[in-house]
């Protein structure tokens, strides 16, 4: 469901917290990739395996329902529409990759993963690098198209 209302200060704070949550996930995944194969923190690995899909789903849904319609309205250009479409495509790719990562980490913890540790490491690095790039693109668009001052006046 898409909303027609513009973002308020509370929404912007939620977006900022969501991006921080995603970047924290990326740091956890990087630590996990660095720890393979002999120094794995199993509790942290289990936590990441369980949280990666719900975290992406929650943050992406918020952006697609509130942020993207507002960016589209603020910019009102063909270029912005193309950028938003690209970000949405990245959401779909990242969500599919998150599901693969969750299944792979759970299988690894059970000792039933058919992939080598090197392959798992590549998979984790490819994912968190994409998510970091995605967050940086969104932050740049928000800063460019939604200046904070008018939003502060709404509060
Ligand atoms: Fe996003």
Secondary-structure topology with pairs:
Blueprint lengths: L8 H27 L6 H34 L2 H33 L6 H29 L2 H7 L1
Concise description?
The chain has one domain (9-151): Four Helix Bundle (Hemerythrin (Met), subunit A) (Up-down Bundle), CATH 1.20.120. It has helices spanning 9-35, 42-75, 78-110, 117-145, 148-154. 84% of the residues lie in helices and 0% in strands.
Give your account of this protein's structure.
- The chain has 155 residues and is mainly α.
- The protein has a single domain (9-151), classed as Four Helix Bundle (Hemerythrin (Met), subunit A) (Up-down Bundle).
- The chain has 5 helices and no strands.
- The protein has helices at 9-35, 42-75, 78-110, 117-145, 148-154.
- Helix 1 (9-35) packs antiparallel against helix 4 (117-145) and helix 2 (42-75) packs antiparallel against helix 3.
- Bound molecules: fe (ii) ion.
- Residues 60, 63, 87, 91, 134, 138 line the site of fe (ii) ion (FE2).
